[in-house]
Amino acid sequence: MSSRCHSDCARSFAVCCLIALMACQREKRDLRPAPAVAVVYGAAAVESDLHPAGKQYRVPQVTNPYEGNAYAISEGQRLFNWYNCSGCHANGGGGMGPPLIKQEWIYGVEPANLFDTIVKGRPNGMPTWGGKIPEYQVWQLVTYVRSMNNLEPKSATPARPDTLEQSSKTIFPKGIAGR
Amino acid sequence: MRRLALAAFAAPALLAQQSALDPAGPDAGAIRALLVFFVVLLGALFLLVVAMTIIPLVRRHRGIDQEPLERTHRPSANTELRLKAVTGVATVATIVILFGLVVLSVSVGKATSSALDRTNSMVVEVTGNQWWWHVQYANDDASRIAVTANEMHIPVGRSVMIRATSNDVIHSFWAPNLQGKRDLFPKHITTEWFQADRPGRFRGQCAEFCGLQHAHMALWVVAEPPAKFESWLAHQLEPSAAPSGDDQKHGQEVFLNNACAMCHTIAGTGAAGQVGPDLTHFGSRLTLAAGTLPNSKGNLAGWIADPQSVKPGNHMATVPIKPEDMQPLIDYLESLR
After folding, report:
1. Which residue of A has its CA nearest to B255?
2. Strand bridging mode B146-149 / B122-129
3. Less Cβ crowding at N or C end of chain B, within 10 Å?
4. CATH of domain A35-43+63-161
5. pLDDT of A163
C-alpha cells in the first residue's frame, strides 16, 4: 500500500516537474536578444512561388527562434500596435490592408514566409520593414501573427486576444443609444 | 532634546535629493510637519508605555516579603479600583489619540492640495509608461504644447497642477520634496497640486510597482526662477537643432534610417514615433533612460548598444547600429540641446 502510494507520489511529482519544465519553455524570456543583422534577408526565406495553377511554397530554410513562446507572442502583440501594423490590418481582421486571419496566404504563412513578407514588403501597400524593425522583433511579430491563426501551440496561444471583448456590454457601455 | 530630534530628521535630507524630510514647497512642508508630530507624540507614548512596564518590575513590592504572588497575594479592593481606573484612562486615551491622529492626517491630506493659490497656476500633463514619464505642458494653442520626457521644469512660487494618466499599468507620481503620492491610472485622469518655494532639482520616483523596471522609473523636477523657466519653455517649443557638420548629419541619417525613428519623435525631422520618449531636446536633459544614468556620451553609447543590460526587460529595442555609425549618432543626439 505504502509502496504503491510512494510510486504514485513519485509519478505525479515527475509529471509536475515535466509540466513545470514545459512551462519554462513556454514562458522563456529572451531579454537580451542578439542584435545581429539578419542572415535571412537573402535567398534563405524567399517568398512563395506563384503559379497559374495553384500555389507551391518553397520549403523555408530558417526556423523561428520563438516558436511556441508565449512571451514572444505577447511582445509581438504589443509591437503590432506600436509599429502600427494595426493601422492597416486592424486587429487581424483587415482594414485597408488584407486580413491576417485566413486560410489562403498569397505569400505563405510559414514563419520564414511571414518574416520575408515583413522584411521585404509586398506590392500594393505593405511597406519594407527590413532595417526598421530589429530582426528579433520581426520574429516576435511573426509568432504573434501565426498565433492569431492558431498556428502556434495551444499552450502558448492566449485563449482570447486582448482585443476581443467577452461581452458586448463592455464594448458598448450603458447609455449608448440603440444598444 | 527638541534640537536633537530635529537634527535626526534633518540628517537624511543632506544626503538625498529625494527626501520627504527636506520639503521644498508648502505641501511637502505640511506632510513633514505631520510626520514629525506623529513620530514625537507616538515616540513619547512608546517611552511612557515602556517605562510603565519596567518600573513595576523593578520596584519592590511593598508589604510582601518575597512571596510568590499567585499563592498568597490578593490585591485589596482599593488596588483593584485603582487598576481599573488606570486601564480605563489608558484605553480612553488610546482611542482619543488614535482618532485624533486620523482626523489630523486626513485634514492635512485634504489641506495640502487645497491651500495653494490657484489663480496663476499652470497645468502639466504627465503620462506614465513602462518605464518612463511623458511630460507635456498644456496650452489651448496646440502649437504651443511643449513635450519632454523624464524631466519636468516648474517655476518657483507658482502653483502647478499635474494632470496625470497612464498608457499601460498603474503608476504613481511621487516627488517627495514637493508633494505626496498620486496614482496614475490607464484611461482615467487624476490631478495633483503642488508648488516649489525654492529653486532646486528634486528627484521623483514611480511609487506603485509597475513591472520589471519599476525601480528605474524616475524623473527630475527642476524648479527654476520664473524668468529662467519661461526661457526654458520657449526653447522646448522650438524644433530640434539642425545637425551641424558632416558627423552630426550622418548621425541624423543613422537615426532616421534605423529603428530609432519607429518609436521616437525629433521635432523638425521625419522621426515621429509616438511610443518612446520625445528626443527633440534630448541633449539638454539631466539623465537618460528615465533617471537611470547621467546623460553623457559614454552612457548614451552603452544605453543604445545594449539597453537590455542597463534596464533588463525595458521596451527599448536592441537595434543593430554599425560600430562606425555609433559615434555620429551619439554626437547628433547630444547636439539636440
Report:
1. A132
2. unpaired
3. N
4. 1.10.760.10
5. 59
Instruction: Test A83 with B262 for CB contact under 8 angstroms.
Output: yes
The answer to whether A35 contacts chain B (CB < 8 Å) is yes
Residue written as grid cell 501594423: A85
Cβ <8 Å between A133 and B262: yes
Looking at chain B, which residue has its C-alpha nearest residue A78?
Answer: B315
Q: Do B261 and A132 touch (CB under 8 A)?
A: yes
Task: Report how far residue B330's alpha carbon sits from residue B301's, in angstroms, rounded to the nearest whole number.
Answer: 7
Q: Among candidates A21, A61, A22, which has minimal Cα distance to A41?
A: A61
* Beta carbons of A35 and B261 less than 8 Å apart: no
CA distance B299 to B286: 12
Residue A125 is placed in which grid cell?
A: 501597400
Whose CA is closest to A119, among A131, A104, A136?
A: A131
Q: Which residue has the cell 497645468?
A: B123
User: Which phi and psi angles does B194 have, rounded to 5°?
Assistant: -160, 175
Question: Nearest CA to CA, how far is A25 from chain B (Å)?
Answer: 18
**3-class DSSP state of B57:** helix
In chain B, residues with a C-beta closer than 8 Å to the C-beta of A82 are 262-263, 275
Distance CA B172, CA B183 (A): 4
Say what percent of chain A tops pLDDT 70.
64
| A37 close to B (CB below 8 A) | yes
Question: Which residues of chain B are within 8 Å of residue A131 when distances are taken between CB atoms?
Answer: 257-259
For A134, the closest of B309, B315, B319 (CB atoms) is B319
Predicted ipTM of the assembly: 0.79
Query: If you search the block for the grid coordinates 520627504, which residue do you land on?
Result: B20
The C-alpha cell 505631520 sits at B34
Q: Taking the domains of chain A in order of start, what are their residue ranges?
A: 35-43+63-161
| Grid coordinates of A68 | 511556441
| Rounded CA separation A120/A47 (Å) | 9
Note whether A39 contacts B: Cβ–Cβ < 8 A: no
Residue B142 has pLDDT above 60, yes or no: yes
Nearest-by-Cβ selection for A37 from B313, B317, B320? B320
Chain B residues within 8 A of A29 when measuring between CB atoms: 313
How is A68-81 classified by DSSP, letter by letter? T-HHHHHHHHHHHH
Which of A152-161, B12-21, B317-326 has the least mean pLDDT? B12-21
Q: What does the alpha-carbon distance between residue B261 and residue B252 come to, in Å, rounded to a whole number?
A: 10
Q: What values do phi and psi take at B40, rounded to 5?
A: -65, -50
**Separation of alpha carbons B212 and B169, rounded Å:** 12
- Residue A132 has its nearest CB partner, among B262, B306, B318, at B262
pLDDT band at B212 (very low <50, low <70, confident <90, very high): very high
Rounded Cα distance between A160 and B300, Å, is 40
Cis-peptide into B131, omega within 30 deg = yes
All three cell numbers of B222: 527642476
Q: Which of B263, B275, B318 sits opposite A35 (nearest CB)?
A: B318
